[in-house]
């Protein structure tokens, strides 16, 4: 009897572990889809900007003949060297263009009021007003930015933080406009103060819908506690990135009448943010990472204010050939700090996945720490499923504070509390979710997460339909509509430029040939939906090209839209489309481009509402019903007294990490390994007991 009970228990355990392993495989596969789409977007941004730079270098300056878009892209660049007189003139110009005294506050304004110097009660009132969805008046916003600018100018490139008074410090990673996550951190950890210092490690803007409010709170806290509130620059505190990823659009929406002056001032303030923070001269906090050429002395010497955008070096007359070797190295250091990622490899290689910075190996980390007598590096920049991750023999810790970054249930957020003389790590995880979503199980969260990722991937596939079919037909000489599974995977990876487990995704995207399990019917990928744009008719080549470059188009349009009116001229629109067609190497009749432009200019005034053009793309089914996925609202209201699950803490000492985090490290099995395990007969060895316990805790 006892033996039968044991065998039954083992069988149930085997089934459960098999189920959980398959669920984990689905989650990781879904994660790779979202991450590949995100990084592909960043890579497109850099490629597009490099394309513009090449065009600028090839063309002679000509006020009459040079395309407007190239003139637009050649402004807002600072000279390579700036003396005191130049800085004074720039200060005067900043105050002249962003003068808050020229703006009056309407007597009917019911939002928060602030005066300087800031007080603690003002900070509390400001946060409460923002929680109540009240908007700070533009006059106060400009005053706040100008005051912050003056304080930031006093700081060096490397903040020197100490725990000698508070015996603790809190490090927060990327927030990306997710205001509820900031509120969660303050709710659980307290507001910044003399005995509760914080480091915010960049990327607090873009992607989310409340970037402005986050910046207001962080800068107000910094003005109140300049010696306890440390703010590092991230790769998204960059005007060119802001054009692409939402911050510029948010400013236009919230401060329409004064958007130009607000954006100009934000652009300048971001350039004054410090690059790194040292904690007790033992721990380095940077946004991205390091390279084999990075040194603290080089970081300290950078004239950071020159870099309005890190995507290009400062240059005079648009000619980067005038830069010296030292100036090029200065730019490279900025790129490496903001854009790099750690990897298991040895040495440094170009970060081809993102398009900027490097991948740096464990030996690079060890050499850097040894050279500067440091214990470890704390960085952000990468979304992690648990909100954090150790690597390089636990010498590098990634902290990411935006929960549900890709979709509900995609990841936890985390912040790091460093306490005591031995600088012990206390990692706190959380997730901000609406009450209605807390009742779903881990399985349901994975299913919802997977469904959203597949839908996003389908949209990318639809935008490349013509090219995909052309590549499939190279294998399908008889045009049967069938290719081998291996050939389908090769074409998908080649055309989509995404390193995904296509074989595992096959069942979600394409139908198998009923007669065999080694062939797929590639046209079935496009049976359910098709891409439509009401201004381009149904011409597949042009519509697909425009949809693939939708984000690039918006970037260019917003650069051209100097007055933030949401409109550009017919000439600018046509020129933009022509440049992108050239960039893509396509052959599209000029008549088609003109037809699009004239169809959008409804009132025939020569201006085009580019927001309307961009929003006219639809994924529709055979009945013409819109099936475009509604993106999640990243800032739904949250009851902070009943958080999704319990707050979880992990205590680690930086000098003794391996033993205490081995349970986390042991889970880092590759996706292919876990898929193979789940299909094998050794199901009782799929996941160790600790891993099953962790996964079951998520229900």
Automatic annotation (TrEMBL):
Which keywords label this protein? Calcium, Hydrolase, Manganese, Metal-binding, Repeat
In the record, biological process GO terms are: detection of stimulus involved in sensory perception
Superkingdom of origin organism: Eukaryota
Q: Which GO terms describe its molecular function?
A: calcium ion binding; iron ion binding; manganese ion binding; protein serine/threonine phosphatase activity
Broad class of enzyme this protein falls into: hydrolase
Among InterPro entries, the record links this protein to: Calcineurin-like_PHP, EF-hand-dom_pair, EF_Hand_1_Ca_BS, EF_hand_dom, Metallo-depent_PP-like, PPP_dom, PPP_phosphatase, Ser/Thr-Pase_EF-hand_contain
Q: Which reaction does it catalyse?
A: O-phospho-L-seryl-[protein] + H2O = L-seryl-[protein] + phosphate; O-phospho-L-threonyl-[protein] + H2O = L-threonyl-[protein] + phosphate
Positions of the EF-hand domain: 463-498, 548-583, 588-623
Q: Which SMART domains match?
A: EFh, PP2Ac
PROSITE patterns (alphabetical): EF_HAND_1, EF_HAND_2, SER_THR_PHOSPHATASE
Q: Which Enzyme Commission number(s) are listed? A: 3.1.3.16
Required cofactor(s): Mn(2+)
As for family, the record states: Belongs to the PPP phosphatase family.
Q: What is this protein called?
A: Serine/threonine-protein phosphatase with EF-hands
Organism of derivation = Mytilus galloprovincialis
